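Narrative of activities, Objective 1.

The group set out to show that a structural description can be obtained from nothing but a protein's sequence at a throughput compatible with the screening campaign. Below is one input-output pair from the validation batch, recorded exactly as produced.
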Amino acid sequence: MLTFYLFPISYAFLSFPIAALLFTLPFLLVQYRRHGYVNKYRAMLLYLFLLYFMNAFYLILLPFPSSVHNEPPTTGSYVQWIPFHFVLDIMKETGVDWGHPSTYLRLVQERAVLQVVFNVLLTVPFGMFLRYYFRTGWLKCLLLTLGLSLFFEVTQVTGIYGIFDYPYRLMDIDDVMTNTVGGMLGFVAAEWLSLRLPRIDKLDANIDLASKRVSYTRRMLAFMLDWFVLNPVIAVLAILKVPVPYIIAVVSYFIVIPYLSNGQTFGKWFVRIRVRGAASRLGIRELLIRYGLLYGIVGGVNALMISIGAHRGGSSIAILPLLLIVFAVNAIFGIHLIMCLFNRKRQLFYERRSGTDHAITLKSVKTGRNNAS
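Output recorded for this entry:
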C-alpha cells in the first residue's frame, strides 16, 4: 500500500526542479512588484507550497493506465454517492476481532483504513498554508478545501478531462468529505504553528528598501519586460516603412520616457526600480550617454546586422566584416558583464560613463503610489 503512494511522490520530487524553474519568473515579478524585494523565508514557503501541490496532484493522478484507450470501470459506476461508505469497507475488510483489543493494531495496516488516513492527510498542508501564509478565515479555508477536493474528483471522473477514454478512478463522496476534514485539521494546526514561526504580515516590517542593492536579476527582468514591449513597436514601425525604426523606438522609449518619468520605463516601473543620476532629477545628458553607449553602440551594431541580414538575406560576403565587428562587440560586452556580475564594486561601462545607477522605488503608505528612493 505504501509503495502505491511512494511512486507518485517520487515523480513529484523528480519533476519539481522543472516546475520550480517555470515558477521562478512569475514569482520574481510578483515579489518585486508587491514587496519591492525577495524575502528568502517567503520564497521558501511558496516553493514548499508548489512542491506540496505537485505531490497532491500526482497522488490523485498516478499511476496512469497503460493506454489512453483504457477499459471502463468493472463496477459499472463512475461515482460513489453514499456518505461514510468507507465505514462499511473497513468493517468488511478488517481482520480485527473487536472482542480482542490486541488485534486493534491491525487497523493501521489495512487498505480501507489507510485510504481514509491518506485522504485526510492529503489536504492537511493545504489548510495549514491557507491559514498561516494566506491568512484565510475558517469559512474561506473550508470552501477552498472543498473546491480543491472537488477539482481532484472531477479530474479523476472525467479521465483527466477526456484524455483517457474512461475514468480510471472512482469519484467518491467520502474522499470529498475526508479531504475537507483534512483541510480544516490543517487550519487548526496552523494556529499552533503560527506561534512558533515568523508572522507573514510582519516579514517586511524592518526592511529598508532604500538601502538594498538592485540585483542584476531584477535588472534583467526589467530588460525582458522592456523589450517585450519594444520589439512589437519596432516591427510595426518597420512594416510601416518608418525610417530608422530602431533609433526612433530606442530614443523614445529609453530616453524620452525615462526623462519624463524620472528614470522609469515600463519594465523598471513593474519591478519597482528607476535609473538614478547625480541629482534628484535625472538629466537628459545622463540618459543620452547611458543609453547611447548601451543601445547606440552595443545594441546598434546588432540592430544594424539584423537589418542588413534581413535585406540581403545574409548571403553577401560584404557583411562578413560587420559580422566580425558584431561578434567582437558582443564578446567584449559579455566578458565585461561577467566581470561585473562577480565583482559588485565594478560598474557597467555605460553606468560609469554616465554617472547613473539604479535605485528601488518605494510605495507611499497613504496613496500606494511609487516614490523614488
